[in-house]
Amino acid sequence: MTREPLPPGSTIGILGGGQLGRMLAQAAAKLGFRACVLSPEPDSPAFAVSAAHICAAYDDAEALKRLAGEADVVTFEFENVSAQALALLEGAALVAPPRVALEVTQDRLAEKRFLDTLGLPTAPYATVENASALAGAAEALRGSADQDAFFLKLARQGYDGKGQFKIKSAEDISKAQAWLANTNAVLEQAVAFEMELSVVAVRGGDGAMLFYDVPQNIHRDGVLRESIVPAPIPESVRREAQSYARRIAGALDYVGVLAVELFLLRQEGGLRLLVNEIAPRVHNSGHWTLEACAVSQFENHIRAVAGWPLGATWRHSDARMVNLLGKDVEDALTLLREDPARSLHLYGKHEARDGRKMGHYVELRPAAVKPRM
Amino acid sequence: MTREPLPPGSTIGILGGGQLGRMLAQAAAKLGFRACVLSPEPDSPAFAVSAAHICAAYDDAEALKRLAGEADVVTFEFENVSAQALALLEGAALVAPPRVALEVTQDRLAEKRFLDTLGLPTAPYATVENASALAGAAEALRGSADQDAFFLKLARQGYDGKGQFKIKSAEDISKAQAWLANTNAVLEQAVAFEMELSVVAVRGGDGAMLFYDVPQNIHRDGVLRESIVPAPIPESVRREAQSYARRIAGALDYVGVLAVELFLLRQEGGLRLLVNEIAPRVHNSGHWTLEACAVSQFENHIRAVAGWPLGATWRHSDARMVNLLGKDVEDALTLLREDPARSLHLYGKHEARDGRKMGHYVELRPAAVKPRM
Which of A166, A238, B64, B110 lies deepest, with the highest CB count within 10 Å? Predict the structure, then answer.
């Protein structure tokens, strides 16, 4: 997708109006673009910072056509875009990232096979067609395992630990069967990792690719809590992680920001990386780039899909990003009082439901190692 | 003005919808506030990034009451707010910065007298009631001057070099008289400065005050072109400049971000500072704080007027801000291509009129001196 850059004042269509859509819309406005956001909730966080919005369901054909008609390019805050919606949008507008990136990542099975094709390492897994196939799959996988725990993950619609079932015992298997019923799933060996990492990178339409520094990510209950840069890893691991993202993005002829989540394992031969998941979008583990880099993941995503030159991804400061979930948000002012170098983002969500991502903050520190441009 | 902090989700009213209002609205949204902007132009830059807006004249009483009714606090992107508008707003809402700060700074005579009262140095000046008093004022001022050039500045409504007339000769005086007619003005001796500087600082309702680093400012034709941090000045000058801003803000019982523009002179006794102008608002010479500081001038202004804790103002990187005036904006993509560490802001203005501020960019470099927190 090499093409003429969009002129300033063009409209960036964004499917999805949550916090990622909000920060994408803010980045678009920074560059002088109009943002037009489609989202079903009338109080979508992105609406309040966008020049225009369309409040409609993601499968509303008329609304999708309107979005495509208004926008000079359409992009996404999430990967679970239906094939029909994609076809509609592609028929009427430029779309980025490309369809194949959404198709591969919205289905865990397709994603695993894609990674296999590229020869990239993942945790041992087996496909599970439905509940009755589960026990056999577990048996087969257990043969190769040095431990005995699994994640059963629905092939579709999983995020933030949703759509997952942890299996630690024989009884869990029958519970998991009831939970799974007739749905397609992937059974994954639970790996004893040392650390979780992610690569957030941006690829332009001309194939040029830039990488942000690799954060260490800390999850609880399947939800990201903290991202820390620099991660305490050797340079060789950082480079290897980034090389995985390069291969993934290249194979998808990707345009925009993409994140690859990884496990770091300590094994007899040394450190080893496994690919956990690909996200074809800006990513929670890259929020610190707004504070700690010359050009953030949000701005670079907009630059890429608009055909603009990519911006510098070097990190000028050390940073720690902490998500505010549910009632955490009530402590926001105390958190600012405790440390003036905390940069707060609240998403404008009204209801602080348990576990809901309400905001985040980024703590900035002078870089311990002098920044490399 | 010590009071309870506004809860997240509160509404920040902003009078003025240009680029400063726009960046204030974006900072408000970042913190989870709703921004409601009042501005007369239907395509005001701030409207596209605000949850709500009121398109009305600045002296429209009904509109001002609506703004005050919607907002939990009202603030300003400019100082030329009429006494009537201020009275209306104050009657119905919290207002920050305080009225006296606007009154003092919207009238050059009042501002000079205020600075005199504080014992802060300014360029020699004389008040000029009208055209007929000009020649005498020039004569009196010339007596004390080692040079022979003046600026005649209208007492009210001047900004970006507008409302000024440069006098270099006797003929200029008669031209200036025709230009001035019956208006109040200040005649200022044109000082041969070494450098222009500014202090951008924030003061909370509790009197706590934080300072950004002092930029060197480069003007052409009275309009700011570049701001550079660090400025090539000794630490003692930086501290003295900041102490001036502290006295000014203290005397005004100021709340919010305030800028003080200064001239640095090299005289026989060494370096000397003169106060040029006070701006009771976020300032063009502080735009680099978005890229180079943990918390920007815009966010700190919103934090201050909302009664929130102030954020860290230390500078993690060296920076150079360059304004894009008029057709400069056509080179935006070339500028990004030339240096990926340029962070671009376009204000979404449609018409690139000569000299109009269309956007700016900030070049970031790793700090030559390790940042002090």
Answer: B64
